[in-house]
Specification:
- With 219 residues, the chain is α/β, with parallel strands linked by helices.
- It has 2 domains: 118 residues, Rossmann fold; 89 residues, Orthogonal Bundle (Arc Repressor Mutant, subunit A), CATH 1.10.10.10.
- The protein contains 8 helices and 12 strands.
- It has a 5-stranded parallel beta sheet, sandwiched between helices. It has a 4-stranded antiparallel beta sheet with strand order 6-7-8-9, with helices on one face.
- The chain binds calcium ion.
Length: 219
C-alpha cells in the first residue's frame, strides 16, 4: 500500500516517512502543494497524508482540486490547526480523517489502516482467503492457524493480491503499490517474491496469467 505524504516541515516529514515505512507502507514524500498536485495527477497512490499549511498551493486547495478531478483516494489531514472550524471545512471539502499535530505514529498507522480498509470496501480488519489470514495491524500471516514467516516485500505483495482477490493485477500495479520512488525494484524481483510466496503458501495460491499479471482467485 502506497502513501503520498505532503509535509513542508523537513524534520517532521522525515519522522513521518520513517514511521510510516516502519509500519509497512510504501511512502513517497513531497514538500509543497503544487508538486503534490502534479504527482497525484500522474501517479497512483492508495492514500494521502496531507498537511494544510503548505507552500505554493495550500492543503485545502489541493484537496479541492483532487476531488474536482474525481480522485477518490482517502485523504487524512495532519495539521497543527486544531480549530473546529478548520476540521469541519476540511472534512466537508473531501477529507476522510483529521489529526492534529503532534501525532502519535501508532495512531496515525491505525487510522491509515482503517481508511484503507473502508476504501477497499471492507469492515473486517483481517483479510481471509480459505485457510489463510492476514492481519494488517500485526502484519501476521497464518495458514490454518500456523504462522507463515514472510519477508516485508513478500508480505506487501500478498497484501496487495489479497486486497484485490479475484482481480488480475498487472506487474506494474503490484509494483506501484509496494515500491516508493526510493526503492527501485530489480527487473525480476517481483517474480522472485511470487516464487517464494508459492513455496510458503502452496503452488496454486497465486495464479499467473501469462503476459497479463497475477491473481489470487476468488474462492
Ligand atoms: Ca506546514
Amino acid at each position: 500500500m502506497r502513501i503520498l505524504l505532503v509535509e513542508d516541515d523537513p524534520q517532521l516529514g522525515d519522522g513521518l516517512m520513517v514511521g510510516l515505512r516502519q509500519a509497512g507502507f510504501a511512502v513517497d514524500w513531497v514538500k509543497d502543494g503544487n508538486t503534490a498536485d502534479h504527482v497525484l495527477a500522474t501517479e497512483v497512490f492508495d492514500l494521502l497524508v496531507l498537511d494544510l499549511g503548505l507552500p505554493r498551493l495550500s492543503g485545502m486547495d489541493l484537496l479541492h482540486r483532487l476531488r474536482a478531478r474525481g480522485q477518490s483516494l482517502p485523504a487524512l489531514i495532519l495539521t497543527a490547526r486544531d480549530a473546529t472550524i478548520d476540521k469541519i471545512a476540511a472534512l466537508d471539502a473531501g477529507a476522510d480523517d483529521y489529526l492534529v499535530k503532534p501525532v502519535d505514529l501508532d495512531e496515525l498507522a491505525a487510522r491509515v489502516r482503517a481508511l484503507a480498509r473502508r476504501a477497499a470496501g471492507r469492515a473486517q480488519p483481517v483479510l481471509r482467503h480459505g485457510a489463510l489470514a492476514l492481519d494488517p495491524a500485526s502484519r501476521r500471516v497464518t495458514m490454518a492457524d500456523s504462522r507463515v514467516e514472510l519477508s516485508a516485500r513478500e508480505y506487501s505483495v500478498l497484501h496487495t493480491l489479497l486486497e484485490n482477490a479475484g482481480r488480475v493485477m498487472t506487474r506494474t500495479q503490484i509494483e506501484s503499490s509496494i515500491y516508493g520512488w526510493r526503492d527501485e525494484p530489480d527487473s525480476n524481483a517481483l517474480e522472485v517474491h511470487i516464487h517464494h510466496l508459492r513455496k510458503k503458501l502452496g503452488a496454486d495460491f497465486i495464479k499467473t496469467l501469462r503476459g497479463v499479471g497475477y491473481t489470487v482467485p476468488k474462492l
